[in-house]
Design a protein that fits this description.
Elements: H1 10-29, E1 46-56, E2 59-68, H2 69-80, H3 89-107, E3 116-117, E4 121-126, E5 136-140, E6 143-151
Antiparallel strand pairs: 1-2, 1-3, 1-4, 2-6, 5-6
Helix pairs in contact: 1-3, 2-3
């Protein structure tokens, strides 16, 4: 179990990366996502960022998941079978918010006290305006993700 005071340690980030990778493996193995994901043009300047509050009686934390807009669009297509050109930024945000919620269900086990998940939020952010975070970098057949867990 991780203490919020050491959420930036390599052990915590490794544990978080493992949780996300195992969750992605489960989604792929269950056939929840059509793979391979389509190739989507990526200008790399827009990132989709989902944030999920994790709360307990004596603590408040947040899980943050980031991926490129192109990856979020590809994931949306993989989940919905919609044509790439029909997927909007809002659709991509909805997909990443749901994935953040799924990651959060497993990530809350990292805390020593009983926790609950609140409603995730998601937004498109320009890469050069992102708040720096200590993240675990996860590369998977379902894309590349940067994940962070820390005090809210």
């Amino acid at each position: 179990m991780s203490d919020l005071l050491d959420h930036n340690t390599s052990e915590t980030l490794d544990e978080l990366a493992e949780i996300v990778a195992e969750t992605l493996d489960g989604l792929a193995e269950a056939g929840a996502v059509t793979t391979p994901l389509p190739l989507v043009a990526d200008d790399s300047s827009t990132v989709i960022e989902a944030t999920l509050p994790i709360v307990g009686p004596d603590m408040r934390a947040r899980l943050t998941v980031r991926t490129s807009l192109a990856n979020a669009i590809a994931l949306t297509v993989g989940f919905t079978d919609e044509p790439v050109d029909d997927v909007t930024v809002d659709d991509a945000c909805g997909t990443l918010a749901e994935m953040c919620n799924v990651f959060g269900g497993s990530a809350k086990t990292m805390f020593s006290e009983e926790t609950a998940l609140e409603v995730p939020t998601c937004r498109a952010v320009e890469l050069d305006t992102l708040t720096p975070l200590a993240t675990a970098h996860v590369t998977h057949e379902l894309g590349t993700f940067d994940v962070h867990v820390g005090e809210d």
